Amino acid sequence: MVSKLKSKRLSGIGEYYFSKKLREIDTLNAKGENVLNLGIGSPDMPPPSAVKETLVNGFNELNYHQYQSYKGIPDLRNAFAKWYAKYFGVMLEPDAEVLPLIGSKEGVIHISMSLLNEGDQALVPNPGYPTYGSATNLAGGEPVYYSLDEAHQYHPDFDALEQLDLSRVKLMWVNYPHMPTGGNGSDDLFAQLIQFSRKHQIVIVNDNPYGFILTDKRRSLLQQRQNTDLVLELNSISKSHNMAGWRIGVLVGNADLIQTVLAFKSNVDSGQFKPVMRSAVAALEVSEDWYELLNDEYKIRKKLAQQVVELIGCTFRDEEVGMFIWARIPTEFSDGESFADFLLNKYRIFIPPGSVFGSEGKSFIRLSLCSPREIWEEVIKRIKEKE
Ligand SMILES: Cc1ncc(COP(=O)(O)O)c(C=O)c1O
């Protein structure tokens, strides 16, 4: 009965692979198995200490409990603008070109709902963050998947894109540093994307939540925006400041596009809890040391992760950036799902298959660096013992 009530826009949108698999893992753990989970991309380390203090102090201010502006408090917009100036060298007008969000995930649906009409198309990376495709579908648009492969360093193949009928394409999603592959952006790539946007009048959105994790250089697509109005970027403090649960993100870029997104967003949600926004300001103001210490820990974990990858017979690219290891499965397995099941059954280790992120991920698994060193060490011990 209830299935008949479901709206058409939800057809084809099912339960997330992770939600199903985590139920299976819970069942195993309830039976006394100790499944080691290397799959979840939620930072496990604490946020900057200034954040906690700001949150607690904010609780006593009466007006902090009221509804807040749809655009967030001015201090938060200013803090994001200063952060972009300091770390990316991008100058933003805080009132017009900065829109705080409830995470960058929220931004993906807001942008899709604000720009796509029925039948419009959006270019979506394969493999990629699944929300780009589902948000396009929810907005009544049509995702057109473009492949990212190792041979092109996980950059779009512009020759292949030019062969497509682009007449209905209004939006292109890119995500550098790329999740799940660890593909890095480059100045040359970003210049090509801007050129592509101008030539075909397509809005390009770079989703940039991993810009501070194990990167060689901090890049923003807006560093090259001089020649076009059609560029937006999503960012967030979920990964850069270990604050995924706080739900603070941001949309930056062209003022008219941001105003369009705000028209939708202001009908759907309201500003976040003021102490949370004030704490986000404190997070954005931390010094460079914060990012160095964070990355020092990720570097150690990455070395351990690489040992695991080798022990289970996979291969990976050394030059990957971001929070994940994208590992090619051993040739004797037909796909990542059967390999993930094998790892779960044999070692009680959970590593999600790359197919969760699209058909091009079929021969891969994705390891997350969000597990502490002890877990990696335990994984290594367990694999060695069971060999
Ligand atoms: C590529 C990508 N974009 C966006 C998000 C969502 O992040 P946020 O916490 O900012 O909503 C994620 C989260 O895993 C992600 O991997």
Task: Give a structural overview.
This protein has 387 residues and is α/β, with parallel strands linked by helices. The chain has two domains: 2-46 and 289-386, Aspartate Aminotransferase, domain 1 (Alpha-Beta Complex); 49-284, Aspartate Aminotransferase, domain 2 (3-Layer(aba) Sandwich), CATH 3.40.640.10. Helix content is 41%, strand content 13%. It contains 14 helices and eleven strands. It has helices at residues 2-5, 17-30, 49-58, 74-88, 94-97, 103-115, 131-138, 158-163, 187-200, 255-265, 274-284, 288-311, 336-347, 373-386; strands at residues 36-37, 98-101, 121-126, 142-147, 169-174, 203-207, 231-236, 249-253, 324-328, 349-350, 364-368. The strands form three sheets. It has a seven-stranded mixed sheet, sandwiched between helices. Strand 5 (169-174), helix 9 (187-200) and strand 6 (203-207) form a beta-alpha-beta unit. The mean pLDDT is 94.
